[in-house]
Amino acid sequence: MRKRTRKPVPVHNLKVTRKGKVRKRSIVWRWRRAFYLVGLVAVFGLAGLVYVLSQIELPRDPRFEDAYKQTSFMCSAEVQVNCNAQNAMAQLHGTEDRVLVTYEQIPDVLKQAVISTEDKDFFEHDGVDPLGIARAAYHDIRGSSESRQGGSTITQQYVKKTYLSAEQTVTRKIKEAVMAIKLEQKLSKQEILTRYLNTVYFGRGAYGVQAASRTWFGHDVEALNAGEAAFLAGLLRNPNGADPYRGPKSLAEAERRRLVTLEAMVRDGYLTPEQKAGYAAIPMDPDAPGIAPEDRFVQPPPVPSTLGEDVKGAEWGSEYFAEYVRQWLIDEFGADTVYGGGLKVYTTLDQSMQKSAFEAVTSTLNRPEDPAGSIVAIDDHGQVKAMMAGTDFENQELNLATGRESGGSGRPPGSTFKTFALAEAVRQGYSIRSVIPSPASLEISEPQCTNGGDVWKVRGGPGGGSSLVTATKKSINTAYAELMMRLGPDAVAGMAQDMGVSSIADQKVQCSWVLGSGEVSVMDMAAAYSTLANEGIARTPIVVTRVEFPDGTVRNYEAEEHRVLTPEQAARVTFALQQVIQGGTGREANFGRPAAGKTGTTQNNADGWFVGYTPTLTAAVWMGFPEGQVPMRNVHGMSVQGGNFPARIWNRFMKAATLASESVDFPEFDEKVLGDGEALDATLGRASVLSPPTAPSSSGRPSATTAPSGTPTTGGTATTDPTPTTAPSATTAPPTTSPPPTTAPGAAGGADPPQ
């Protein structure tokens, strides 16, 4: 075995001791040049920092300046460049709701709440807190929620909001730190905290603690208790996300933030655990039982709008769209940027279409006692071109088009939801020629189809069997109830969500949804049906195409998209929905161009719908009373159904909205491709024809005089489809039927009219 030899040590790394022994020099000696270099870099770095500190000057005292006076401009789609005060449809700016208070006027509990949550070492550091930065980084790496504080001190936050932009760059962070240190040298801690609390945004247009106290609690800041102070401190990071009046999600977030702040105050010795428990137990829900309006924890939002005084197009309801965009901007960028950023916002709204939507509703529902109406129109790029969401924004800001998203509630969609069952059947490979039982009535128990434990009573069928085309065209309830049983409610709800009904995720799916017992918004329905217009591609609606920032930064927006159906599958659904307009329940929607759509009417005629599309434009129409569940049985002397008033409104809007554009056909597919697929019911099979022979229209589709789809070519009735020779005769009730119920079905388990 070979003996390893040691490498000789260089002579310059050896030294001779006093006793004459030779030893290796220390590691410090051997690395002395590197240490010298590091030392020089540190010295020059420190000198550079001192130089930077000496060069950066703080602007003059901004205590009485309004850092939020810059105006942001919002333009409609007609303006493509240079959005400004002259061509803007709306201007966004601070509401001037700010009242300065002194350090002595601010109660200790509010100072303590803010310091505990934002900067617990505020009185110890010199403007920048290295330990706080390290602590925040540590918890970020761990993914822990233990620390609710960021790395920025209160001084840094004040500097950023007052002197600097919101850009996330290293240069800006260095400036922020340097200016924070200089501010600490210039002002006392009390002065810095007072300035911060007088300028920070607390939501609802309130800047500073005095305006916030009055806005949220209806009293001056001096009267705040620890529970109220904890609530205000919890608003600082995202005020709009913790307003108890903006729905269950925001309410839960407000309660969570208040509790986190109270716990931090206990940790820092400002409160006892018993005091914390007492304040945390105070109900925050504005609808909590047994609490009078004047005793609510926080007050309702103020009525005045935070839009500019004049909105172009206000005479045809553009304020609702502008307010929707304003809320979106705040969620996207934060209130400080929106109200103080000098943004130029380019929206998707087509003012001409908006006017057409407004006139279509108001010319149809033209009497003082008439119900309300709403329209949302979306083009083939996913851009919202019109949003008719109300007629009196000054007195009623509730957006009828967006439902829960804008603080309102959803609406039952009626039979417009049947389209999602049809699309799911096609996605699963079934033919639209499939014949399915369509009895006069039926009862479906819980094991057969989940419906909240109730027996589901459905009526509204001709008897015998009907093809899916005819069941869609005539909106046959019992046929679609049978279809829902076969497909399963989860699959149908999944299709609706895939196509664009975003509110489904928050609801419990039931079988009765196929007849429209769930809750949707007008926006959701327009988005979902546009998936069919786009040949199976779902596009998430957008209201803004571009935002320009004062520093030259530009952010562009396009609709996110994903494929739900193949082009052939989408064409099959479209074919069935064309029959609705050409000779079915939606005949009054026919405006002379290739179009497809579906009617919808809810229990007791409380809601009326028509949702339809051309290849390039989709529009959803809803009508009803804003308070909901009010029967519409005597509107202009008749009961409202999806096929009358909503279809007429849709017709008038689409005729005006497409007047300046060329007529576009749906993609061509022969009847074999359209009719392909398996039979849903092996016994009943498929209808022998997709539709009877007719002279084609200019679009290559059956003309408006087409006979009912599925009508037998020899014999039979017009309400049922021909069945194979092995199927029961049309007069034989399918085994799932039962005698008609002796009582009218309830709202929960009943069926809407066949519209």
Radius of gyration: 34 Å
Mean pLDDT: 81
Strand content: 5-15%
Main beta-sheet strand count, sense and barrel state:
5 strands, mixed
The dominant shape is: elongated
Describe this structure in words.
By secondary structure, the protein is of the alpha+beta class. Among the domains are: 13-55; 96-295, Penicillin binding protein transpeptidase fold, CATH 1.10.3810. The protein is built from 22 helices and 18 strands. The protein has helices spanning 27-30, 32-55, 108-118, 130-142, 154-163, 170-186, 189-199, 209-217, 226-235, 248-267, 273-280, 318-333, 335-340, 351-364, 418-427, 468-473, 477-487, 489-499, 522-533, 567-583, 645-657, 671-675, and strands at residues 14-16, 22-24, 72-75, 90-92, 344-347, 372-379, 384-388, 435-437, 441-444, 456-459, 465-467, 537-539, 544-548, 554-556, 561-563, 596-601, 607-613, 617-624. Strands 4-3-5-13-14 form a 5-stranded mixed β-sheet. Helix 9 (226-235) packs across helix 10 (248-267). The longest helix is centred in the N-terminal third of the chain and has 24 residues, at 32-55. The chain is elongated, with a radius of gyration of 34 Å. The model is unreliable at 60-69, 144-149 and 692-752 (pLDDT under 50).
